[in-house]
């Protein structure tokens, strides 16, 4: 069953008096529990596509459905509530708060977004820190750990709210290849173990091969879809 469906989606930005067509008549479906990559060069529309699916932006034309809900008609408040309940985010710059420890960063969305009681917060934070191998680093600050460890913490933070969907925008861009593969393998393991749908954007061909389904983008259009037999 499709978790995400886009129908005839266009996205146009106005830069001064110039119109920039970031997406052009995009049609796509992503099934539940899939491990999918949006691939293409810079400016191809990958991040714009993730932002629309993540309710961070709205299309100029067309419809965006996430978990069978049409999200492009949401108000800002409705979009924020929907994101908090359904979507986790992983960013290339980690976006951990420098004044909070690893534990506190992972805990943050549970009381800021979902208002989870303290005992349950602790149980869930420790569960996901253990899952990403970061329990021994929980009291350290982002500046005190490596880039790979920061991204592991970011994966735990994205998963701690038990979202149906995790969106990862160039999640390995600031990592060396060894740590990049570790993060991708970690996401694949979470997808297998938890049934979470992962969609990530990348232009790194070595990382692309780890996906099962690939949508190739060029100039704001999906030019083809690939299904890789080596994906899990």
Describe this structure in words.
The protein is of the alpha/beta class. The chain has a single domain, classed as Rossmann fold (3-Layer(aba) Sandwich), CATH 3.40.50. The protein contains 7 helices and 10 strands. It has helices at about 45-55, 75-85, 100-110, 120-130, 145-160, 175-195, 205-210, and strands at about 1-15, 20-30, 35-40, 60-65, 70, 85-90, 165-170, 195-200, 215-220, 220-225. Strands 6-7-8-3-9-10 form a 6-stranded mixed beta sheet, sandwiched between helices. Strands 2-1-4-5 form a 4-stranded antiparallel beta sheet. Strand 1 and strand 2 form a beta hairpin. Helix 3 crosses helix 4 and helix 3 runs parallel beside helix 5 (about 145-160). It is globular. The relative contact order is 0.20. The model has no long low-confidence stretch (mean pLDDT about 90).
Give the helix proportion (percent range): 25-40%
What share of the residues does DSSP label as strand, in percent?
Answer: 25-35%
Low-pLDDT segments, ≥5 res: none
Q: Give the overall shape.
A: globular
User: Structural class per helix/strand content?
Assistant: alpha/beta
Strand order of the largest sheet: 6-7-8-3-9-10
Q: Give the N-terminus to C-terminus distance in angstroms.
A: 18 Å
Number of domains: 1
CATH first level: which class? Answer: Alpha Beta
Q: What is the CATH superfamily classification?
A: P-loop containing nucleotide triphosphate hydrolases
Main sheet makeup: 6 strands, mixed
Encode the helix/strand succession as letters: EEEHEEHEHHHEHEHEE
Query: How large, in whole angstroms, is the Cα Rg?
Result: 17 Å
Average of pLDDT: 91
């Amino acid at each position: 069953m499709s978790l995400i469906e886009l129908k005839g989606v266009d996205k146009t930005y106005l830069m001064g008096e110039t119109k920039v067509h970031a997406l052009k008549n995009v049609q796509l479906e992503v099934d539940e529990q899939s491990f999918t990559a949006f691939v293409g060069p810079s400016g191809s529309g990958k991040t714009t596509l993730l932002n629309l699916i993540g309710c961070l932006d709205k299309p100029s034309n067309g419809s965006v459905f996430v978990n069978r809900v049409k999200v492009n008609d949401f108000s800002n408040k409705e979009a924020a509530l929907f994101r908090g309940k359904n979507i986790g985010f992983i960013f290339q710059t980690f976006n951990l708060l420098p004044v909070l420890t690893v534990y506190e960063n992972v805990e943050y969305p549970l009381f800021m977004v979902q208002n989870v009681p303290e005992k349950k917060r602790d149980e869930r934070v420790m569960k996901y820190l253990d899952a990403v191998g970061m329990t021994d680093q929980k009291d350290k600050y982002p500046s005190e750990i490596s880039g790979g460890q920061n991204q592991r913490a970011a994966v735990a933070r994205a998963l701690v709210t038990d979202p149906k969907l995790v969106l990862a925008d160039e999640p390995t861009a600031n990592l060396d290849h060894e740590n990049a593969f570790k993060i991708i393998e970690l996401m694949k393991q979470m997808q297998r173990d938890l049934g979470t749908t992962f969609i990530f954007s990348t232009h790194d061909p070595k990382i692309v091969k780890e996906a099962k389904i690939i949508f190739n983008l060029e100039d704001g259009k999906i030019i083809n879809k690939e299904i890789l037999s080596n994906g899990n």
